[in-house]
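Dear support,

We are seeing what looks like truncated structure output for some complexes. This example has four components. We would appreciate it if you could run it in full and send us the complete token output so we can diff it against ours.
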Amino acid sequence: MWIAELSRRAGVPVATIKYYLREGLLPPGEAVGATRSRYDETHVRRLRLVRALVEVGGLSLSRVRDVLAEVDEESRELHGLLGAAHGALVPEPPVVSAESKERVDRLIKDQGWLVYEGSVDRALLAGALDALVGVGHRLDDEVLQAYAQAAQQVADTDVAHLPVGDRSRTVEAVVVVTALGGPVLLALRRLAQQSASARRYGTNLPS
Amino acid sequence: MWIAELSRRAGVPVATIKYYLREGLLPPGEAVGATRSRYDETHVRRLRLVRALVEVGGLSLSRVRDVLAEVDEESRELHGLLGAAHGALVPEPPVVSAESKERVDRLIKDQGWLVYEGSVDRALLAGALDALVGVGHRLDDEVLQAYAQAAQQVADTDVAHLPVGDRSRTVEAVVVVTALGGPVLLALRRLAQQSASARRYGTNLPS
DNA sequence: AATATTGGAGAGTGATACTCTCCAAAAGTC
DNA sequence: GACTTTTGGAGAGTATCACTCTCCAATATT
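Here is the complete output from our reference environment:
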């Protein structure tokens, strides 16, 4: 298919596709003469993935580029794949307090989790806990543990449903489920909060 | 305290404080003469809240402005407060498919949740589910229900630990816990995913 | 022959979030 | 009381991001 059809199929303007090609977010089509290239289904898929990561997952284009590089990396084994994909998905870790760092280490130990010592998520979690303390709303251990247990249930389900076999399918699934499953989980949490609040304090329904 | 001390206490440059004052993200200090205003602890708190919502919560300044308006709204009762705070926190809802909309409605019904029909989170959730389908990774019902149950555990804990009494403290807590608790939950989920993957496919630890 | 589309590259745009410069008034310092 | 510093206020400038537009010559299509 030509670029115009790719544009229609993926719902992305031609100018934007050209921009993504320039930025290396979409591999070039098969060149057919000097001013013509042919695109295929993989381009449609890739384009939809980029748009979903940006619009729903809230990733920046440079984060998306890192993530795609991870998806396209052929030589990665299942072992360590998830950490690498996460590394591409998340932002730079902040500087954190020793207290929060220890609290995170203790939580991971208490939960019996097997986590690489240098995982950026340790720092990201500690940074978020620091921010909570900074605004005077420290999460107490009881709450934090409830979060950890809920997180583990979700994560176990995620990992259990990961497709195995085709390596690149697996990385893509990791990326998609982590990046787009996040908004799903947070929306569900807000809905459940509204419900819990309605039960406790009134119907919450418009009069 | 003068603006310089406020800047030191909150860790925000004077130029940025002036910008926030102009943009209405920070209430003006008490004017003392034509070129002098006095600031207090409430300004330090507010500034830290703004920075935390932006840096950790990932909110835009205009979203932060809406959230603060909600925090400062005196005339809101506990009933409906949470929905209003959520409305200020989340982005514009997308256009969604009928399938996903029905799926969300069914899930809410099955969970026995009490949610206002017009909650933006219904549309946001449906939009995220549509995005998953669009990239070929539909979440099956089993997974979605596991997410919903985990979300409910977290939400119940959240609501149970909300401070009651001072109304404005309560809204602030809703905002802080929702906006900053999100990153906490997502970081925990990634850590738990890493752990689950390590157990299943290898140690995931560096050799 | 006339019209339309393409790849490629560069320039332009609009939003966001600051950051810098300037000013005159006031406050603190010696 | 002269001098330096700080302040509030407003405007202009800057950096980044994610496009979007314009132009071109080479092809395709009609």
